[in-house]
Amino acid sequence: MSDKKKNASKTEVKKAKISSPASSFKVVVREIVKDKVALTAFIIIVLILLFTFGGSLFLDSSKVTEINIIDAYNGWGVNGHLFGTDDGGRDIVNLLIMGGRNSILIGLGVTAVCELVGLVVGLVSGYYGGYIDAIIMRIVDFVQVLPRMPIEIVLVTVIPHYSAWSLVWIISVFGWTNTARYFRAFVLSQRDRDYVLASKTSGSSDLKIMFREVLPNITSMLIIDVVLTIAGNIGIETTLSFIGYGLPPTTPSLGTLIGFANDPVNVVNRPWLWLPATVMLLAISLSINYVGRALQRAGDARQREN
Amino acid sequence: MWKTVLRRILIMIPQLIILSILVFFLAKMMPGDPFSGQINPNTDPKQLAALKQAAGLNDPAPVQYARWVGNLFKGDMGTSYIQHVPVTSLIADRAVNTFWLSLLTTIICYAISIPLGVTAGRHQDEWQDQTVQIFNYITFAVPAFVFFILGIWLFGFTLGWFPISGSVSPNASGFWGTLGSQLYHILLPAILSALITTTSIVQYLRTGIVDNKVEDYVRTAHSKGVPDNVVFNKHILRNSLLPIASSFGTVITGLLSGSMVVEMVFSYPGMGKLFLDSIGQRDYTTLTALILIFGTLTLLGNLLSDIIMSIVDPRIRIK
Amino acid sequence: MAKEIIQVKNLKVHYPIRSGFWNRITDYVRAVDDVSLTINEGETYGLIGESGSGKSTTGKAIVGVEPVTSGQIIYKDVDVTKPSNRRKLNYNKDVQMIFQDSMSSLNPRKRIEDIIAEPIRNFENLTTDQERTRVQELLDIVGMPSDAIYKFPHEFSGGQRQRIGVARAVATNPRLIVADEPTSALDLSVQAQVLNFMKHIQQQYNIAYLFISHDLGVVKHMSENLAIMHRGRLVEIGSRADIYNHPMHIYTKRLLSAIPMVDVENRIKHKKHRQEVELEFQNDQSKWYDKNGCVYPLQQVSGNHWVALPKDEVIQEELNEKGRD
């Protein structure tokens, strides 16, 4: 396959460049760049990523969470701590970097699992239809009516050797259903298109049709869903950490930092503990969602054009 | 229509059964048993083992499950490990609080979202619509707890307009005094919860109106010379509002799952707070009961949605 | 007599209707109900019917993309309604399809090269160079420029896309192509062009067509034998001469009388003929249709000519015909 592509590009480089698929990702990117607010949101995302992931390169994670009682509850800018320190004398800026990174990583991890499972389930369910679809959809229905957060919290407390990975799996158990539904609906609409029939008569297997024919037609939807799901999953992780049943206590999270606001004393007297994290989470949620929505609008516009 | 409702209820039965099995195994995964709370250094291990045997804790899982379900039907959800009172009475007190909070939230939610949705749909792409869209985007994007924290910080602590915790002031006296104090306490959490619940209703309503506007029947009405206002109120609005009715069940469900965070931030003694307290104290009988209740209520909420939908929309009824 | 290539025997495609409290199957939609026909090598067999008559479903069943309820499709002495038999024979290498909507039948995300090469990759072992040569050759046959292979479907006109569809269908040198209304979505001027390409290819490679259409004019231009379908059943089958010159069933007559004609001089005469046919249809419903509104089983009239009428009615009709002659 790749050899063929290479040959093609060697022989007819110029001509190959002329054409692009009907609804390519590039077009969507162009739409985003045209939308100034979306562009700003995108830049904010990049800055936050640089701050958290870049910053964490310079930090020793064991030192960040090291307890130093003497430095506890330093205020803004005291002793070289720009945003002060928490009850254990840990520097808030460092915790923001690590916590932000962890929260984003968990969001990405959960999204990866959910999108993968949801995509495969949605493709299979929508493509085959019939009994397979009926059974899968009953399962999806059931998972969706489960009281998600209480079960997640209980699982967090009872699972042995609890770690950040456990959290990814626990959140994913409930997260894949929306994605599966979303893709199923679309695959269902593609299933009876003539190009699928044409592939069948061309002798392609069901698997090949699902992943090589139908999947390329839903890539832009996949991108939109991934972006919005990341935002949602960061929200779920931080919520759980905020309540106290998210990331393990030794692993900083934005939710844990915001959790300081559960103590009225902190709310009034020590805003440095929770306010920066709150602002950062706000910035992350608002910008990722805005980019996601802008992508959605661009995608819708393209669909209307076709 | 009764057939549709009946079938929908029948579908719920296996869901309830699976839910109960799931909760049962979740309960089994939790450490501790009804006697853990009563153990003290003087307890004779042999006596304890005998007690466990007598209580059937060594029976095979299906037998234990059957007994547990049997007790549920008798209204016995076990005794709290920590508080040593029947779980049902523990939950009943809190459920009332959660009920009032949810009720007020629902009322405020619809009171806000219907006008917003209608305005946005009516003035599609004008400044009114754009303003609503921005509002909608914020309520959608911001995680609920961040919303609550900022709300309580601004209106509770900084401005001091609302109380920051509890369900009633200890100084409140008399029927009206107590009621007023209760209302005052749930007002801020209810408004904040309502605001973040509006998103989907506003969106559905707006889309419904926008879509209905270009339907042929609306064009027919226009071409017959029906005044714009009448067309909007009698045709577009009615057809767009009906589907909103079915969102009711979903809203209730959403509030239940969200109750934990609101009640935590506002230290409001409802079921969500009880759940968090119980998990902090590892009070597993209470937890199990609460999960079962949350699950059942969610199922009922969905049932309600579907039933309302089948009343409103004749197309999905069984012929 | 020409060698037959495929035989359809008592083909039925039924879809269940579920309803009631338990969602049980209460009835069936009889999309295709007891259809039998035989297509000879290298001929064009026309299948005509109004929309919803089951003609496309029949075509799809023959290609193997529509599950069959009962009946047989015999190809090379085996029943190809079974997927395992199709796989054994590499059935779709020999039996291909051309679709009505050229836009939706070409995957918008694939280049023309990959679209045309898909059956080749699945059925033939060619090196990349051979494959490319073959694709170029196919494009040449349907009269498309060679740089088309790097383009995407949306960059072509409807007629061009349909020619790409034809190229894909003939890519594996098939012996039968089911053409499901291949030109009804095209402009009239382009229709003739595509039809001529199809005829040209047929002569060159001895391909048989099952030509599905609702347009009797187009079918007359294309096919030697034809079948008329109505409500899932065959109404009348026969040679072109049989159907066009001696239609027996009222449905066929109505269809024929509905062909628009540019013949100003005989305008009154045509109109009178149409009204006669309509009157005949109105008066004797029960003669043509059973109580469910379906046509009767086929009866032989002569050689290849079969019509869906009760036996005695056939004789009666024949006498009428003779009298008229």
UniProtKB/TrEMBL annotation, chain A:
Does the keyword section mention Transmembrane helix?
yes
Q: Which CDD domains match?
A: TM_PBP2
- BP GO terms, sorted: transmembrane transport
Superkingdom, according to UniProt?
A: Bacteria
Mention any one GO cellular component term assigned to this protein in its UniProt record: plasma membrane
Q: Output the SUPFAM superfamilies linked to this UniProt entry.
A: MetI-like
Q: Does the keyword Phosphoprotein apply?
A: no
A Pfam family recorded for this sequence: BPD_transp_1
Residue intervals passing through the bilayer: 37-59, 104-127, 214-236, 272-292
Task: Provide the alphabetized UniProt keywords.
Answer: Cell membrane, Membrane, Transmembrane, Transmembrane helix, Transport
The identity of this protein, by name, is ABC transporter permease
Q: Which organism is it from?
A: Lactobacillus bombicola
Lineage here is:
Bacteria, Bacillati, Bacillota, Bacilli, Lactobacillales
UniProtKB/TrEMBL annotation, chain B:
Keyword Disulfide bond on entry = no
Question: Which keywords does UniProt give here?
Answer: Cell membrane, Membrane, Transmembrane, Transmembrane helix, Transport
A single GO BP: transmembrane transport
* Annotated ABC transmembrane type-1 domain residues: 95-305
According to the record, the segments passing through the membrane are: 9-27, 99-122, 134-162, 182-205, 241-266, 286-312
Q: Which SUPFAM superfamilies match?
A: MetI-like (SSF161098)
Regarding protein family, the annotation reads: Belongs to the binding-protein-dependent transport system permease family.
Q: What is this protein called?
A: ABC transporter permease
Which organism is this entry from?
Lactobacillus bombicola
Automatic annotation (TrEMBL), chain C:
GO BP, sorted A to Z? peptide transport; protein transport; transmembrane transport
Give the Gene Ontology MF terms in alphabetical order.
ATP binding; ATP hydrolysis activity
* Pfam families (alphabetical): ABC_tran, oligo_HPY
Q: Where is the ABC transporter domain?
A: 6-256
Which SUPFAM superfamilies does UniProt cross-reference here?
Answer: P-loop containing nucleoside triphosphate hydrolases
* UniProt keyword annotations, A-Z: ATP-binding, Nucleotide-binding, Peptide transport, Protein transport, Transport
Asked if Magnesium is a keyword of the record, the answer is no
The reply to whether RNA-binding figures as a keyword in the UniProt entry is no
Family according to the record: Belongs to the ABC transporter superfamily.
Would you tell me the protein name for this molecule?
ABC transporter ATP-binding protein
| Source organism of this protein record | Lactobacillus bombicola
Identify the taxonomic lineage of the organism of origin.
Bacteria, Bacillati, Bacillota, Bacilli, Lactobacillales
